[in-house]
Design brief:
70% of the residues lie in helices and 7% in strands. The chain is mainly alpha-helical and 512 residues long. Among the domains are: 142-192; 203-422, Hypothetical protein af1432 (Orthogonal Bundle), CATH 1.10.3210; 430-502, Cation efflux protein, cytoplasmic domain (Alpha-Beta Plaits, 2-Layer Sandwich), CATH 3.30.70.1350. The strands form 3 sheets. A 3-stranded antiparallel beta sheet has the order 1-3-2, with helices on one face. The chain is elongated and about 190 Å long. The termini are far apart.
């Protein structure tokens, strides 16, 4: 039973295997045919779709081509119209050019005829001129070249004479115009300037605090007055004017030192020779400090900025310099203002003109200490202080602007002349008295043993202070006689000169 079951199972399995094999064979043989049929159907469908799409694309391309043809035909018609218009224009232009060419040919023919006629006329004129020249040569007996030379000489002489006449008239007119403009500029500048200074006074009045001060100032037997005058070189007039003491001197420096020292003496009330000497020395030292302030004040009044401190100090020293009684510092300020105003009228640089005008006499502050003229000394000092070349040139040539390199020097010279020649500015008698005083003092200082010499009373008295260690009593007598003889030999001026030799022996010792 078991065997039959196994047999049955084997048969079933075999049949199953055989069926599967048959099915596999059938699928392997029949599958390609089925697939081929399906592919053929798809290809037919795709061909029909492609043909339909091609027909549609072809229709669209035909429509576009037809539209392009229409547009191209329209454009061709437009181009043809433009071409016909240009062709017509060219035709008209060609016709105009041809007409103009015909007119030019006619005009050229006319000009050719006229030129031929002119050539014939020119030839005839030349022949006539030649005949006339030969006739003139025959009549005058001169060749043509000689006649031309004579004629040219006469024409040249006449032209030269006319040129001289015209030049003279022009120079006269220019001179009159320059003179007129110069007067206008001067009047304008002078009218805008104002001067209050006339000339430097020769005396200074110092008020007395009370009547007792007068007696104290005089001292025992006039000792204080004599000491004060000997130390300062200033005349002290005590009893001439009630309530005041008058200081008289041509030298403003001495007068200012005396004024400061006297003021302090009167304030203190202790007046004796030793204190007088101390205060005179202190006044001289104090005056040096005042000088710088005076220089700055002058620069401010003249509207000049940026001056070197050394130049300001020299300007301040000009306060104590006079020229024929005229204060040189105030004169410099006036010259600076005038030079600036004139420069403005003439279109020049007023800043440089004011600066040069203010500094033009700066050399007078040092000319008594160094050799050379004040113009050259001032120019050299200004150059070393960094002043511009135009300012230095004006200072150096303010008395001789012809050699200057700029017109500023001429303006400064003019301003200087206007300031010095105005009424009341200067007094020649004062200048002569100052020169006499200087000469008298110089003669005394040349003698051995003389420390100081003061010319007072307008030079009518000379006070000589000697070193007591070098000059004894007998030698003082001889010195007075020698100085008097030297003054007589020098003939420094009319009138008598009283010589007073002052010898004072002073011994000091300090107790510790």
């Amino acid at each position: 039973m078991g065997t039959g079951l196994a047999l049955t199972l084997g048969l079933v399995l075999g049949a199953l295997i055989a069926g599967l094999a048959a099915a596999a064979w059938a699928g392997w043989v029949l599958a390609p045919r089925t697939r081929a049929a399906a592919l053929a159907g798809e290809r037919d469908t795709q061909r029909r779709e492609a043909e339909a799409a091609a027909r549609d694309a072809l229709g669209r391309e035909r429509e576009a081509f037809a539209a392009e043809q229409v547009a191209a035909k329209r454009e061709v018609k437009e181009l043809e119209g433009r071409a016909r218009g240009r062709e017509d224009a060219f035709d008209r232009r060609i016709e105009g050019l041809e007409e103009r060419e015909r007119a030019l040919r006619v005009r050229e023919a006319e000009l050719t005829g006229k030129q031929a006629a002119l050539e014939a006329e020119r030839a005839e004129v030349e022949r006539t001129v030649q005949r006339n020249v030969r006739e003139l040569e025959r009549i005058s007996g001169m060749r043509r070249e000689e006649a031309e030379h004579l004629l040219l000489e006469r024409v040249e002489a006449r032209c030269a004479e006319e040129a001289r006449t015209i030049a003279a008239k022009a120079e006269l007119g220019l001179a009159e115009e320059a003179d007129r403009r110069g007067r206008e500029a001067l009047l304008s500048a002078i009218g805008r300037a104002a001067w209050s200074q006339t000339h430097e006074p020769l005396v200074t009045a110092v008020p007395l605090p009370d009547d007792e001060a007068n007696a104290l100032l005089i001292g025992r037997d006039g000792r204080n007055v004599r000491t004060f005058q000997a130390l300062t070189g200033v005349d002290l007039l005590v009893d001439d004017t009630p309530g005041v003491v008058v200081l008289s001197s041509f030298d403003p420096v001495r007068r200012e030192v005396a004024r400061r020292a006297l003021g302090k003496l009167l304030d203190e009330g202790r007046i004796h020779p030793q204190r007088i000497e101390e205060l005179v020395v202190a006044a001289r030292a104090e005056l040096e400090e005042v000088v710088a302030g005076l220089g700055r004040e002058a620069a401010r009044e003249a509207h000049v900025e940026g001056l070197h401190p050394r130049l300001e100090a020299l300007l301040g020293r000009l306060e104590f310099r006079t020229a024929e009684g005229d204060n040189v510092r105030l004169h410099s300020v006036e010259a600076a203002r005038l030079a600036g105003l004139l420069a403005g009228e003439l279109g020049l640089d007023p800043v440089a003109a004011r600066r040069a005008g203010l500094l033009h006499d700066i050399g007078q502050a040092v000319d008594h200490e160094q050799d050379g003229g004040h113009a050259a000394l001032g120019a050299d000092f200004a150059r070393r202080c960094g002043e511009a070349d135009v300012v230095v040139d004006a200072i150096a040539h303010h008395h001789d602007p012809v050699q200057a390199s700029s017109p500023i020097a001429a303006l400064v010279q003019l301003a200087n002349a206007l300031s010095t020649r105005r009424p009341g500015a200067r007094d020649g008698q004062i200048e002569a008295a100052i020169r006499r005083r200087t000469e008298v003092e110089a003669i005394a200082l040349r003698h051995a043993g003389v420390e100081r010499a003061w010319a007072v009373q307008a030079g009518r008295e000379l006070r000589v202070v000697v070193d007591p260690a070098k000059v004894g009593d007998k030698a003082a007598v001889r010195l007075a006689r020698d100085v008097a003889r030297a003054l007589e030999a020098a003939a420094v001026g009319p009138g008598e000169i009283k010589v007073t030799v002052i010898r004072e022996l002073r011994v000091e010792e300090t107790a510790r």
